[in-house]
Amino acid sequence: MATPLFEVRDLHVSAGDVPILKGVDLTIMAGEVHALMGPNGAGKSTLANALMGSPEITITQGSIHFRGDDITSWGADIRGKAGVFLAFQYPQEIPGVSVINFLRQALSARKGIDLSILELRLSIMEWMKRLGLDSSFADRYLNEGFSGGEKKRNEILQLAILEPAMAILDETDSGLDIDALRIVARGVQEVRQDRPELGVLAITHYQRLLDELAPDVVHILVDGRIVESGGLELATRLELEGYDSWRRETTP
């Protein structure tokens, strides 16, 4: 039996003294796209931060495995170098650091080599064209003055250039209009076309992103637990019923 690319086992997570995740199990094979949906406060972003190794949360029980290795105790930098990528819901501005310099430093750390700006610029230009970004984009300061769509496309540019094995997209569609969302979703599909073994966990509120990504599995997270998993029909049911039926099922 093939080893899962990414596996979460009975994960319990707290923020301060408040328990947020209460036993999450999740298995993602290479090349699979999984979607995670849930109401506000369900623990979606907490799960994303736990998977990436954020120091702001505490894992109190359970484990996280990447390519068969237990990475529960690994820091975010080690996970990033190993091939785990997180696209943030609210990307941070970094004044004074250009997009291309940021990518050069990140890719050099990821690959363990010292890349020159010239070496990187050619591949960046190709991907910017594929993502619908102007050629001047590479020399702008990271996320400074970017529109919401530009920030999210920049995250997909990072995903393309850094070549991770596992991508966690934390509400990448947040704040985007339908045209920008399609550009971002198609950017993810462009990356997957080049690297079909890429695993993706897309955390979202909206079915419209799923219409573009066509996930293999949809999970519903309510009150810190995955309460149901299924195909795209689960997202369709959610659009019709909302979260109330799952809340009733989890209420003692």
From TrEMBL:
PROSITE patterns: ABC_TRANSPORTER_1, ABC_TRANSPORTER_2. One of its GO terms (molecular function) is ATP hydrolysis activity. InterPro entries: AAA+_ATPase, ABC_transporter-like_ATP-bd, ABC_transporter-like_CS, FeS-cluster_ATPase_SufC, P-loop_NTPase. Signal peptide: none annotated. Keywords: ATP-binding, Nucleotide-binding. Residues 6-248 form the ABC transporter domain. Pfam families: ABC_tran (PF00005). This is Unannotated protein.
